Amino acid sequence: MRLTREAILARLEALRCQLPAARSVARLNLVQKRRDLEADLRVLDASRGLRDLENDFVAIARDFGRRERISYSDWRDLGVPQVVLCQAGIGSGD
Q1: How do residues 73-86 score in pLDDT, each as one tens digit?
Q2: Is pTM beyond 0.85 here?
Q3: Per-residue DSSP letters for 46-84?
């Protein structure tokens, strides 16, 4: 199950409250959980940024590609996923 950003932040806050009183192995486990949650948060934020970029691309790519004579194959050669091109209305005939 993937956690939401809010759930990760809530768990991080709970860990921050528990850490001062924790001793030895319990403290070590809390520190590791904190690192894991912080890593999950970075991944989540990075994927959100990618979605925003894809949405921006979808909004302008078709007109830009036509104007600049960029073909479907050109986009694919640059690594643009097929599903993103489809969302932008760019097909293999373009």
Answers
A1: 999 999 999 999 99
A2: no
A3: HHHHHHHHHHHHHHHHHHHHHHHT--HHHHHHTT--HHH
